[in-house]
Amino acid sequence: MKSSSEITLSILLIGCFFLVLAESFLSFSPPSPSLSPHRHVNQEGKGQPLVRPIVKSSDRLRLFMADPKQDLTGKVVAQRYIYRFSPTKSPVTSRFTLEERQYYTVAQDRSLEAFGDKCFIFRDDAEVKDNGIDPPEESFKKNGMPRVYTRLGKALLTLDNLKEADEEEEGVGGSVWESSYAMALYCMENPDVLVGKGIEVGSGVGIGGILSAIGAGLACRSNESSESAAALKYQSIEDIANTPLESSNPENDSKDSKAPVPKGLSKIIMTDSHEPLLTKCLDNLAAASFPVSKAEVALLDWNRRLPNEMKNNFDFILGCDCAYYFPLVNPLARTVAYALKSSPYDRKNNEQMIRGKFLHIGPRHRESIDDLRRKLGRGYRMNTRMKDIVLERIDLVPLIIDNMESVQSQMKEEVEGETGGYVEYQNMESTDYSALVGYHNEDYDGFNGDYFFPAETGKEGSYRDSAQELDYGTEMM
Asked: How much helix, strand and coil, in percent to the nearest 5, is found in the chain?
């Protein structure tokens, strides 16, 4: 039998054990979930990010600046991403690329502070002008990995200081979604999308619509320049002598200072249901020097009846990843169906006249996009087409610049200098997207929607497979 002293010692030891256990339990705190407003749980239950998190100061930048031998105080560091349609994987390709750039200033303690807002650079195909410079010779990083390079095309236009919404503002429309970049590249390759009067649904701060319209305008200008250059090869000396010189009228200069948009674009209306976002959208239109007569902003709530003046009124409707969860599908489809112009059958030419086109681009994994297609077809008897797109994001090695005044000369030197446009990159990712195009059934006259649309008559279930769901082709666009 144990003595009382042994019992007391055992009790003390057991007490100490539980005390240590309790302290360790109280000091433990589980990792907190991300509070970033740019990442949301998918309403479909998949938990996938709706948009890539916006990097305020990337780990790669901090690692890049970790070399103590390099004095970066007072320098400017540019974080750069190149977006393009995959030249090998994407069924839809484009000769153009889009660069997203964010500048940072470097303090003495090597901390980074964002300088200005996002900058976007439209670039031409790197192979348009072959300078005969070979890629850099094979070399290796300190970790033994080989260096990899991509080639930049000539900068066509730079848009500075396009703003996102402040973090405390509600809604996902305040962020730039990568679907916007896919939309812009698509419109650059298919500028005829933006002809006539149209709207962008779910514009948010408007960067997607702005990039798409200006990109399409740049593509038109580039195509015209190529055609003019080809025509000049066949001009006689007399033709060249009789060609009038370009006017130096200051009024023309002021027009040229405006961002280019397609000549056939009469107006694009940027819409959203959140007024603070539209205020930011106005700021971005001004920052991009968008022609004032070519753009408007307007409140539009899909859950409300479309105003009569907006019905059967638009030649095109754009949307960037608007159907990101199922409850948005029905109101979005109804808004599109009533706002889009009818496409009647032309008996004289024996073909349908496609007067109104809807273009929506979003991630391929989003099941709600398939739901949107079905709703447009079965609920509103619209013809729909789809095509897959593969968007690549190339993370370039951060660029160190002495000051902001040297940015333009650096951009020119990078493409036309000794490197021939080859720049090192550190990572490449690809994301699958779907382009959905819709237009009205030839029997819809623009006014009989309440009687013609199965979603309005309650006969949607009986319509089903009679809706045309065509294999997508770019010939219409």
From this structure: 35, 25, 40
